[in-house]
Each structure stands twice: as structure tokens, then as C-alpha cells.
Specification:
By secondary structure, the chain is an all-alpha fold. The protein contains 4 helices and no strands. The mean pLDDT is 93.
Length: 91
């Protein structure tokens, strides 16, 4: 991205992730990072953002509404499917 470091870098996962804040193409919801971005932020700040997003899913600003609905209505089903996707796609 030729606008970095003045704009937040784009983030796209190559491995499928069953997460409400990651869309089917692997793009993560960037609203929080972009709204607080300053050129002095580092790669560590970006990694912290990704880890925080993974640890604290939310249905607000969901990138995948189907997954967000499952997350909101049945955490156990969401967790089981997420674990299944780890086995299928992340090993």
C-alpha cells in the first residue's frame, strides 16, 4: 500500500477463519484501527489489533452476518464450528 504509514495497512487472511469480524475473502473489520490510526503506529500495534479482534468477536460491524448471527445466538455452536474450521483450514 503506497499510502502507508499515513493510512492503516490492509489486512487479509489467506487461511479461512470462522469469525464474525472477518469476511469470506479474509478481510478483517478495520474500522477501529483506521479510526485511531496515526503514522507512528507500528507493526506491533497492528498485530495487537488483530489479536484483540480474534479474542473478542462482536456482532457490531460484522463482516459476515451469518457467522455474527450464530455467534450472537449460539456461542457453543459458533465455538464448535470455529474449532472445526481450525482443523480443516489452519493446520
Amino acid at each position: 500500500m503506497n499510502e502507508y504509514p499515513f493510512k492503516a495497512p490492509g489486512i487479509k487472511f489467506l487461511t479461512k477463519a470462522y469469525h464474525p469480524n472477518i469476511d469470506k475473502e479474509g478481510k478483517i473489520c478495520m474500522q477501529a484501527l483506521e479510526s485511531n490510526w496515526v503514522p507512528t503506529k507500528s507493526a506491533c500495534d497492528v498485530v495487537d489489533f488483530v489479536l484483540t479482534t480474534f479474542r473478542a468477536p462482536t456482532d457490531e460491524n460484522a463482516q459476515d452476518m451469518e457467522i455474527a448471527t450464530v455467534w450472537k445466538n449460539s456461542r457453543s455452536k459458533w465455538a464448535a464450528t470455529a474449532a472445526e474450521w481450525v482443523q480443516l483450514y489452519a493446520k
